[in-house]
Write a sequence for this structure.
């Protein structure tokens, strides 16, 4: 979905790519708060086979604090989701685009956020660019 995600496909296993993603995010001040093994949940709860698919919840505490100070309800959009999914050509990495997500907010909230969405996007884009 254009405007909602930054994306890149990498070679290697999902675990190898996950380690690269975590290291690249760390360089931009993000840590991984949560991890959901979607394929594992679908298998355990519904008996469905699904290619490897993980959702990581990435957070930059400084950016999160600023966002929550501007609008406490923004916790609904935190943390930034990072999806790792196995495809035939490799592991696709999708990172939630804060500018796209925050564009859905009312004008008054966007004004209070100022340059925060752009700063978050720049950091996440730099992390994605580090992946090879």
């Amino acid at each position: 979905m254009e405007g909602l995600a930054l994306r890149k496909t990498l070679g290697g296993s999902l675990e190898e790519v996950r380690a690269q993603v975590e290291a690249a995010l760390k360089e931009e001040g993000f840590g991984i708060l949560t991890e959901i093994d979607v394929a594992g949940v679908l298998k355990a709860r519904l008996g469905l086979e699904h290619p490897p698919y993980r959702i990581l919840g990435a957070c930059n505490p400084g950016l999160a604090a600023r966002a929550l100070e501007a609008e406490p309800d923004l916790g609904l959009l935190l943390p930034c989701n990072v999806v790792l999914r196995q495809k035939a050509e490799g592991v696709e990495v999708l990172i939630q685009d804060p500018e796209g997500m925050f564009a859905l907010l009312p004008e008054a909230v966007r004004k209070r956020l100022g340059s925060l969405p752009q700063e978050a996007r720049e950091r996440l884009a730099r992390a994605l660019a580090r992946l090879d």
